[in-house]
Specification:
The chain is mainly alpha-helical and 89 residues long. It has 4 helices and 2 strands. A two-stranded antiparallel sheet has the order 1-2. Helix 1 packs across helix 3 and helix 2 packs antiparallel against helix 3.
């Protein structure tokens, strides 16, 4: 598993979730796209899915612990009404 690619996929999915109004639908579409692309293994897709769901849960609970989402270094994301900010931890 390529941890860097997984983290990039998690960040991209979260960015799309923050930009849209239906995050769970966005996650489902993103994961379907990964499956269709044919370059991601089932384990990698599962790792992305788990990381995204853990981060969304953290965002909804207003307690974001990005490193706990995948047990890998990660960047934090804060969604607000106008912009999505990505800051290194």
């Amino acid at each position: 598993m390529n941890a860097e690619q997984i983290n990039l996929a998690i960040r991209e999915c979260l960015r799309l979730c923050c930009a849209g109004k239906q995050p769970l639908t966005t996650v489902a579409a993103f994961l379907a796209g990964m499956k269709t692309a044919g370059v991601w293994s089932k384990d990698e897709i599962s790792a992305v899915e788990m990381g995204v769901h853990r981060m969304l849960h953290g965002l909804l609970a207003d307690a974001v612990y990005p490193r706990d989402a995948t047990n890998r270094p990660f960047v934090s994301m804060r969604c607000d009404s106008e912009t999505t900010r990505m800051n290194g931890i």
